Amino acid sequence: MISKDELEYLAQISKINLSEDEAKKFPQQLDKTIKYIDILEELASDDSNVLDLQEMKFDELRDDVVRMSGALRITKNLTEDGFLRGPKMK
Amino acid sequence: MSGLHNLLAHEVVEGIKEGLFTAEEYVSTVIKTIEDVESKLNSFITLDTERALSSAKLIDRKIKENEDIGYLGGVAVGIKDNISTKDIRTTCASKMLEDYVPSYDATVIRNLKQNGAIILGKLNLDEFGMGSTTEYSRYHPTHNPWNLDYVPGGSSGGCGAAVAAGECTVSLGSDTGGSIRCPASFCSVVGLKPTYGRVSRYGLISYANSLEQIGPICRSVKDIVLIMNIISGKDNSDNTSMSSSQITINNKLDKFDIAIVKELINGGDHGVTGTIYSTSDKFKEIGCTCDEISIKNLHYALPSYYTLASAEASSNLARYDNIRYGFHLPIEEYKWDTYFSNVRKNFGEEVKRRILIGSYVLSSGYYSKYYLKARSLRSLLKLELLKLFKKYDLLIGPTMPILPFKFGEKIDDPIKMYLVDINTVIANLAGIPAISLPVGFSNGLPIGLQMMAAPFEEQKLIDVSYALEKTINIQRRPSLT
Questions:
Q1: Is residue A16 part of a domain?
Q2: How many other C-beta atoms are found inside a 10 Å radius of the C-beta of residue B233?
Q3: What's the ipTM?
């Protein structure tokens, strides 16, 4: 079973505060999922047979042209002088 | 004029062009249908009916002035709410994006509009596409039009229900592990997940980039072809997109070699299995061969899918910090880290579970145990499938091994819910095209046949689907009055 400390660590690196209810039921649920994917250990394979699945060619890059996206309209925390306000670092 | 909401997309365009009815009359009928049934179904998150009516009037003006109205001139389209639509709220069914109004159209939306399509509104889904029932939507669940006590499938459940019920004529969904095909099967409509790269993902709000594709959900194979030819193609804004040849409706069917995949059909619901076997007999009637085969590594597919999808989700969803857009939470009282952790409480439970699992499988010590193994399986599976496609044109099985189920049946057990996707994730892992075609009913609930083909062989899926559609001719319209 995923321990309380492990869950707290996962929540911390994922930057998610969990509610009391979630902290109570998630260990069991996540544990079931992890047990389910544990079957992958049996798979006889290693990194060497990981293919480039999409066979993508990145040698033809498009020109890097700046296009106005109008994205500023969606920034609700934009100040009048064009800065984006965020919470204090410390 | 009544009944116009029952028309297929190509019939709508022909009717408007021939002057049998106006675009305004047709769109008004569709809106009237929404007013009549939406309180039962809850297919939409956001409706944009006023703008839709103005667009219809514009189409009618073009007709009067003998201007071209495009291949989709006047057709009312519903869009899954994780595809960006300029000036129409796009929530991903999440509270994290409840006020997000995109400032640009996804490439697929731009293509639809350029061809005269009318966007009616945004359709419900499981939050960020994570789920198979729409029960994980943070707004409301959508109901199955064939039986309102049952789920419509997911994650594009709003698309399946709205198209089946005539609330829109066609819709665009997205498919990461079966999200187009599952609701198509549960709602008795046609859904196509294209080959990875055939359709631009620019403007699709990412959940798992290496698996997902945008695709159509329609009431006929002909409409699937119509939409696919409009949304496919190379797009400079999506480096994974590729050019491909157009697909067509062929009235003459080549002799195809088809194989039922044992692992997809074994252990399924009795009604589903019986219907798929009787459909396989129809293949012989239309001149195809039908064998039964086995795929070696298939039991690793679903755990691999959930490993990869969760890993990609944990990375993709890291961007939601509520600073640039999101819900109202003043920043003044918080410090940097605590603010993010607090706002991200607002994700729903399933999204949180997947982010946590993603963080787990990517963390040191577990990366090679899970993530690399899942990637290896993906390669092995694709190689095995490509080998099989040298011998067989199509691999088939039930889209969903079970019938639609009642609300709440699986919601408390994530694994039970994940198992619903067992037949569909294969196509996403391998990047191959797959279609779900309605082939029957059991206890009044729809059954879909899934067919998979080699990469960029959508034409084969269409040829067989079109021939079968004509042979089977099943009921397509639920009674909701």
A1: yes
A2: 16
A3: 0.90
